[in-house]
Amino acid sequence: MHPVFPDLNGASVFITGGGSGIGAALTEGFLRQGARVAFCQRSDAGGFCDAMEQATGSRPLFLPCDITDMAALKSVLAAAAAAHGPVTVLVNNAANDQRHSTLEVDETFFDWSIAINLKAYFFAAQAVIPGMQAVGGGAIINFSSISYMMGNAGYPVYTASNSAINGLTRSLAREFGPDRIRVNALAPGWVLTQKQKDKWVTPEGLAAHLARQCLPDPLDPEDIVGGCLYLASRASKAMTGQALVIDGGVVVTG
Question: Which one of the record's GO molecular function terms can you name (predicted)?
Fold first, then answer.
């Protein structure tokens, strides 16, 4: 259960990758606030939309899109604005932490990883900012990860993108603060989505990670929702250019 943020009721929200993993939890969280939610992803999300409508009484708008195609990304953002009004909350959530080693990366993989994990964030923000300016403000939440703070090996292009997201967040916050557009990053720890469980979670690896957390419990997608709702709402109206870490206490900031 999450606090209710009245200003999110009726807000036009767009979430990249909003039909699975953390994104699905975010979609449900915003729907339960009364927001008008649109989201994109590559795979079909019809069944998820049916489930959300049954659970919350509201149906999210699913717009199929490969976010590495910038023209398609801009098109679905325009469609969301046409359906729900100018997007006033953008959640750049979609990412891909495909494991790779530095010596095996070629330019094709590098460009693909950057397109998903950084380039799409920039151009999604670029697409919605004029609408936010027109209505007097908005909130952009850029999902990063604690992986770059930990200096993890095994996905260097991904961690480079995570670090760059912080730089992008701070620059956009500075540039568009006069328009009352707030831009913050949200850095989760190791969240046990189904994808993580299927691909990378092992008993030994999970035990080692939990030993690094201050809190003893593994993170679920639901654990990230409250922080994102806070950053989207006017409860955080004086907060911009910041990185909010939700990781059970692995890294310590400040």
Answer: oxidoreductase activity
CA 31 centroid distance within chain? 16
Paired strand residues for 38: 14, 61
Domain ranges of the chain: 6-246
Given the structure tokens 């939890």, which residue do they identify? Answer: 25
Sole residue written with tokens 């767009």? 14
Q: What tokens does 54 get?
A: 């049954």
Q: b vs e for 65-100, b when ≥16 Cβ sit within 10 Å of the residue's Cβ?
A: bebbebeebbebbebbbeebebbbbbbbbbbbbeeb
Q: Which CATH homologous superfamily contains domain 6-246?
A: NAD(P)-binding Rossmann-like Domain (3.40.50.720)
Q: What is the pLDDT of residues 196-235, one digit of tens each?
A: 999 889 999 999 999 999 999 999 999 999 999 999 999 9
Residues labelled catalytic: 158
What is d(CA 27, CA 121) in angstroms, rounded to the nearest whole number?
18
pLDDT tens, position by position, 67-120? 999 999 999 999 999 999 999 999 999 999 999 999 999 999 999 999 999 999
Q: How far apart are the first and last CA of the chain?
A: 28
3-class state of residue 81 by DSSP: helix
Least confident among 69-83, 119-133, 145-159, 232-246 = 145-159
In this structure, the chain runs to a length of 254
* Residue 142 burial (10 A CB sphere; 0-12, 13-18, 19+): buried
Gap between the Cα atoms of 91 and 18, Å rounded: 9
* Sign of the alpha-carbon dihedral angle for 98, 101, 104, 105: positive
